C-alpha cells in the first residue's frame, strides 16, 4: 500500500496528557533561606544576597525538587561546593525519573480510559539524566507493558520538550494508522 494512503485521516488528537513533578514543593523564600545552610556555604554572604536577588526577580513563587535534606545527607557530594557530584546526581535520576514517568503515564492512561495493553508507542521526555537502557525502557517494565512497544526517548529538550514530543506523536500517528 502507498505510504501516503496509510496515513491517518484528519488531525492527530491528544487523547490524554500525564505529568509528574518531584514530590517536594518549596517556596522560593524557603529556598533562599535554606539553600546555603544545606550546602554548608552560609559563609558566602555576598553570594547569598545575589542568589536572593535573582530568585526574587524571577517572580517564581515555588519550585518542585526531588532533593531533600535526607537525600543530600545520603549523597554529600551533591551539596558540597566544588565536589564532583555528577555521578551521584545521575544515580538518583536513573532511579527516580522512571518512577515519575510511571506516575505521569498512569494519570494519562486513566484519563484516556483504555487498558495498558492497547499501548503501541511510548514517547518519554525528560530534562534529567541520561542512561542506557533509558528511562523509557524502565518505564515499560514499571507499567508492565509489552517489550515490543515502540519507544522513543528524548533527553534534554529544555523548553522545547512539550512541542517536540507532540510533533513526534503526530508523526507516529500518521505513520502508524489505527486499525
TrEMBL record:
<protein>
    <recommendedName>
        <fullName>chalcone synthase</fullName>
        <ecNumber>2.3.1.74</ecNumber>
    </recommendedName>
</protein>
<dbReference type="GO" id="GO:0016210">
    <property type="term" value="F:naringenin-chalcone synthase activity"/>
</dbReference>
<dbReference type="GO" id="GO:0009813">
    <property type="term" value="P:flavonoid biosynthetic process"/>
</dbReference>
<dbReference type="InterPro" id="IPR016039">
    <property type="entry name" value="Thiolase-like"/>
</dbReference>
<comment type="similarity">
    <text>Belongs to the thiolase-like superfamily. Chalcone/stilbene synthases family.</text>
</comment>
<dbReference type="GO" id="GO:0030639">
    <property type="term" value="P:polyketide biosynthetic process"/>
</dbReference>
<dbReference type="InterPro" id="IPR011141">
    <property type="entry name" value="Polyketide_synthase_type-III"/>
</dbReference>
<comment type="pathway">
    <text>Secondary metabolite biosynthesis; flavonoid biosynthesis.</text>
</comment>
<dbReference type="Pfam" id="PF00195">
    <property type="entry name" value="Chal_sti_synt_N"/>
</dbReference>
<keyword id="KW-0284">Flavonoid biosynthesis</keyword>
<comment type="function">
    <text>The primary product of this enzyme is 4,2',4',6'-tetrahydroxychalcone (also termed naringenin-chalcone or chalcone) which can under specific conditions spontaneously isomerize into naringenin.</text>
</comment>
<dbReference type="InterPro" id="IPR001099">
    <property type="entry name" value="Chalcone/stilbene_synt_N"/>
</dbReference>
<feature type="domain" description="Chalcone/stilbene synthase N-terminal">
    <location>
        <begin position="5"/>
        <end position="169"/>
    </location>
</feature>
<keyword id="KW-0808">Transferase</keyword>
<keyword id="KW-0012">Acyltransferase</keyword>
Amino acid at each position: 500500500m502507498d505510504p501516503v494512503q496509510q496515513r491517518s485521516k484528519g488531525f492527530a488528537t491528544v487523547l490524554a496528557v500525564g505529568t509528574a513533578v518531584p514530590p517536594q514543593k518549596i517556596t522560593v523564600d524557603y529556598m533562599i533561606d535554606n539553600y546555603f545552610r544545606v550546602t554548608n556555604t552560609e559563609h558566602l554572604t555576598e553570594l547569598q544576597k545575589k542568589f536572593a536577588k535573582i530568585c526574587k526577580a524571577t517572580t517564581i513563587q515555588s519550585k518542585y525538587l526531588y532533593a531533600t535534606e535526607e537525600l543530600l545527607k545520603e549523597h554529600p557530594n551533591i551539596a558540597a561546593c566544588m565536589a564532583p557530584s555528577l555521578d551521584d546526581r545521575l544515580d538518583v535520576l536513573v532511579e527516580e525519573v522512571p518512577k515519575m514517568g510511571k506516575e505521569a503515564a498512569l494519570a494519562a492512561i486513566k484519563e484516556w480510559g483504555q487498558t495498558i495493553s492497547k499501548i503501541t508507542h511510548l514517547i518519554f521526555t525528560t530534562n534529567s539524566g541520561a542512561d542506557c537502557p533509558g528511562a523509557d525502557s524502565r518505564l515499560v517494565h514499571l507499567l508492565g507493558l509489552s517489550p515490543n512497544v515502540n519507544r522513543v526517548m528524548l533527553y534534554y529538550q529544555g523548553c522545547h520538550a512539550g512541542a517536540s514530543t507532540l510533533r513526534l506523536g503526530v508523526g507516529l500517528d500518521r505513520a502508524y494508522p489505527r486499525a
